[in-house]
Amino acid sequence: FPVTIGKVDVDGDVNIHFLEGKKLPIKFGKVTGDFWMTEAYELTSLEGCPDEVGGSFTVEDCREVESIKGCPKTVGLNFAVTNCLIKSLQGCPEVVPGYFDCSETLLTSLKGGPKYVGEDYYANQTRITDLEGGPEEVGFNFYLQETNLTTLRGLPKKSKKISISTRDCKLWDPREFKNIDCEEIDITTEPIGLLTLLS
């Protein structure tokens, strides 16, 4: 990419792979299609990412990225930032029409993330301990596998399926499911030792 002053709008998709350097060399404005960035191992920031994406926004295997700051304010479909060092969802779009994925990160909370997700919500292999500030409505399935959850307080008010596994072995309080509109709930707890042996 050439270094450009200001922001660049793209009518179509943007695919960035194996980018060298700690930051994007240009700043994007609006991308009408998908924005996909993978395996940018030196990248430390999402600054320069589009303000608006008409399709899906995906950042994968950018393992030095510690903040979601700079991500789009709006997306037309999916939003995924996975396998990186982010610790907060502050700055995410409030509405994600497709699926939302923040798996394999250092997140301990869902606060700051989208309130409405049209399809599936994934927060697998994180350090999340509670669901406070998480989504209010998930169109399809709410997945939190291999987490550190110790309470179900803050569950989405509506979701077709809730599937959770945690390293904590405490008994769940059934009162947390009161007023939850959900067709299927799958909760699994496993001792830390067993998870370690199976991993």
Written description of the protein model:
The chain has 199 residues and is mostly beta strands. It contains one helix and 16 strands. It has one helix at residues 192-198; strands at 7-10, 14-17, 27-31, 35-38, 52-53, 57-60, 74-75, 79-82, 95-96, 100-101, 116-117, 121-122, 137-138, 141-147, 158-166, 181-189. The strands form three sheets. A nine-stranded parallel β-sheet has the order 2-4-6-8-10-12-14-15-16, with no helix packed on it. Strands 1-3-5-7 form a four-stranded parallel β-sheet, with no helix packed on it. It has a three-stranded parallel β-sheet with strand order 9-11-13, with no helix packed on it. The radius of gyration is 18 Å and the shape is globular. The N and C termini lie far apart (40 Å).
Strand content: 25-35%
Gross geometry: globular
Q: Pairing-aware structural class of the strands and helices? A: mainly beta
Reported for the largest beta sheet, the result is: 9 strands, parallel
Strand order, largest beta sheet: 2-4-6-8-10-12-14-15-16
Rounded to the nearest angstrom, the radius of gyration is 18 Å
Average pLDDT figure: 88
**Which regions are unreliable across 5 or more consecutive residues at pLDDT < 50?**
191-199
Tally of helical runs = 1
Helix content: under 10%
State the end-to-end distance: 40 Å
Count the beta strands.
16
> Can you write the helix and strand succession as a string?
EEEEEEEEEEEEEEEEH
